[in-house]
Amino acid sequence: MDNTKDRILAASLFCSLSENEQEEEIQKLKESNELLGKVIIYELELQIDSNYRARIFAELLSELSPHSEYPSMFVAKFLFRYEELKPDDGLRRGPRIRRAALWQESEPSESDSETAVETVPRFGGIETKREVNDLIENPRSTELHQKQRPGACEHVIIVPEDEHKEWLKSVEESINEQVPKLLNKTAGKASCSIFRVPQSLVKIHPEAFEPQMVSIGPYHYGAKQLEMIQQHKRRFLGAVLDRTQEFGVGLDEFYKVIAIDEKKIRECYSGTTDGFDSRQLIEMMILDGIFIIKLLCKVGKLVQEDPDDPIFKSQWIYYSLSRDLLRLENQIPFFVLRNLFEQSISADSRKGLSLTELILKFFHHSMPEHHRKVRDRFKNNHDWKHLLDFLRSTFIPSAQEKASNNDDLRLIQPVEKLRASGIKFKQSRTATESFLDIKFKPHGVLEIPCLITDDFIGSFLLNCLAFEQCFKDHSSHFTSYVIFMGCLINTTFDAGYLREHGIIENYFGTDKEVVKYFNDVSKDILFNIKGSYLAKVFEEVNKYYKNTWHVRWAEFKYTYFDSPWAFMSALAALILLILTMFQSFFAAYGYFNPPEGSN
To answer: Which PANTHER family does UniProt cross-reference here (predicted)?
Structure first.
């Protein structure tokens, strides 16, 4: 018969034993044939820590067979022991016990002073031996709280059954009623694509994920530091409506095109949007979407704007806004942008430009060469998740590498060790699309496109990485790239060497900051090396690195010919060795072939 209830009660009663009694019970259990060697016990802690003794006793009880008689025997011995100590007043038997309130510890009163010891636990309603036996067979109370006062023994609180049932009912009701606030129940669906950034990344670079100028979407809505732009959004909406009403589109049309997708919009966010009712959410999407479209049209010169507009007067604002629009927590669904764009910009005034072309033109200020490289491939609208997803996709090389089946794939060594093994580093001149296009060429040449390390690219890389870590239905190109560069850059020498060869264009400041950036970013992220687009590069670099002849010859060149001073030292040593050999030769020749006439 399962004696789980007896074990619970025995563990509760154990806390009221003296220190010596506790150790005796543990020793008795530890040496039993049933438990021999199953639980590791640290004797020193057993002697000084009452909490440790209680935990070990509970662990030993859990290891007992369901049919073990020990728990019920312990309970019976404990309760009858205190009954024997209680003076028989002829009226009732058993210790004087008062019912304890829920989550509180009952204090002994003066009337209780006649009980044997002060530390007898209080049990509600135990009056006779029959009731004690009933408690052993079918405990009517449940342990919910245990507390130890400084300078006093531990007291165990047993809550009556009716109170316990009331607690169970309240918890069950809260389970059914409470809706998760931090992680939506739809967060696991493919439709969910706008996430809260994992804390493992936030704690490393918090400034990369926090908007500095503008709030887009619900996550940072109402933040005080973003009020300036928030106050201008209604003005921008008014200006757009003045223009759209000329071709019959008003606020009601904007409302309808967003309202029809309200459920779809809510499913895009991993965090709950229940704090916003339908009207508030739709209004937010309209204001934020129109604000973004206004920026795109301003840069694309689709509409005439006030040259003295305070928002667009300073060039630094564009730079700050472009960074904020590419933060993972600062997104709205791409279909919201597309629908508002179709409604707010007539076909005649688009000048043949699509929404994606306008987006690329807008970010041309931050990534000058990228727009030219990918413009033709991304000029048509597609079903992107949001702005960050779209721009991230433009960096994915069109020639997709296949995953590797090699079970022995490993990460590569840093620059200094790869150079010592004969691998050469070269800036790629043939990469036509992005800095992700890394190749390993024959004869040990690793071609890597130039990466501009500044605040914008640094923030963009991190947000793409966070998106890939959260969204399961996308490739992990940026994750692979960050891991690859983190492997290469281990010291300031590594960073400096890549900078000198045009692979890194450093606007962070010092080489030390580049090292810190990649070392920090590559920590605590999930990475499947076999599924990486760089799996073949990892495999080929490691294969070349392990080649014995390559390594020995490269080490020789690296040691003696890597710098002019090393070469001169090696040359001087070689000349000295040759001269010594000649000297030895002529000395030996003169000895064995002396000149004629000499003795």
So the answer is: BNAC04G53230D PROTEIN, PTHR31170:SF21
Q: Which of 150, 167, 184 is the last residue of a domain?
A: 167
- Say if residue 239 is in the same domain as residue 150: no
Domain count of the chain?
3
Mean pLDDT of 409-433: 87
Q: 158 and 203, same structural domain? A: no
- The answer to the question of residue 119 being in a domain is yes
504: enclosing H helix or E strand: strand 504-506
Q: Are strands 445-448 and 439-441 parallel, antiparallel or unpaired?
A: antiparallel
Annotate 254-286 with b (16+ C-beta within 10 A) or e (fewer): beebbeebeeebbbbbbbbbeebeeeebbbbbb
Identify whether 149 is part of a domain: yes
Q: Are residues 211 and 141 in the same domain?
A: no
Specify if 585 maps to a domain. no
Question: Is residue 60 a contact partner of residue 28, using CB atoms and an 8 Å limit?
Answer: no
Place of tokens 């006030």: 306
If you write DSSP's letter for every residue of 224-263 in order, what string do you get? GGGHHHHHHHHHHHHHHHHHHGGGT--HHHHHHHHHTTHH
Is 578 a domain residue? Answer: no
Q: What is the domain extent for residue 286?
A: 199-394
Residue 61 near residue 10, CB atoms below 8 Å: yes
Over the stretch 544-564, which tens digit does the pLDDT of each residue have? 888 755 555 555 555 555 556
141 bridge partner residues:
160
Sequence-ordered strand ranges (E) for 181-221: none
Write the pLDDT tens digit of every residue in 568-589.
666 677 777 787 887 777 677 6
353-360 own/partner pairs: CB under 8 Å, 24+ apart = 353/300, 353/302, 354/379, 354/380, 354/381, 355/296, 355/381, 356/380, 356/381, 356/382, 356/390, 357/300, 358/296, 358/297, 358/299, 358/300, 358/302, 359/296, 359/387, 359/390, 359/391, 360/394
Residue 72 pLDDT exceeds 70: yes
